[in-house]
Amino acid sequence: MHGLILRTFQVFVQDTYGPEPWRRIVDGAGLDAPDFEAMLNYPQDIFTAVVGAAEVELRKPPDAFLEDVGTYLVSHPNSEGLRRLLRFGGVDFIEFLHSLEDLPDRARLAVADLELPDLDLVDVAPNRFTLLVGAGLPGFGFVLLGVLRAMADDYGALVLMECDGGTLGRQTIAITLIETAYSQGRQFALAASGAPAEEG
């Protein structure tokens, strides 16, 4: 398990709930140290232990915890860099969806040894899509669901989404786009200090 993933869990809990809940999660998971190093690799069972301890401490099922992590990755001020990277995927939410298949490759450009599951977007009908999430990272579909919900808000789109539990590590996210311009999206600039780009 890549340390960047576990480090993300850590900062999510600390930023959202505070240091004490994270300390109790560390104790509940039986970890030797309270901090994860982003560039190290850890045994898979540490991931399972952390998610299980978070379920007990936060009183939240694992799928909801993972979805909240995904939302955090896009919406929290500390994650502005990732949000900007994702926004370059398209001028509107549909273009963004079609850019998701390139996400694992883009992630490897940023972190060479970070392996994300393959993503395959299927056009089911007008404004209806199925996102197939490959095996390789437990619960990644729920994290991605949180990312997608936050990005839909970012674009100002009204979208219905649901993720199944999956089998053998594979998951499916059903996506129905109700309206592309339901509300005003968040401001986005092509450069960090440049003029805002027009919202799609």
From TrEMBL:
Coiled coil regions, renumbered to chain: none
Boundaries of every Heme NO-binding domain copy: 2-158
Biological source species: Ponticoccus litoralis
Descriptive protein name: Heme NO-binding domain-containing protein
GO CC annotation: guanylate cyclase complex, soluble
A GO molecular-function annotation: guanylate cyclase activity
Highest rank taxon of the organism: Bacteria
Annotated GO biological process: cGMP-mediated signaling; response to oxygen levels
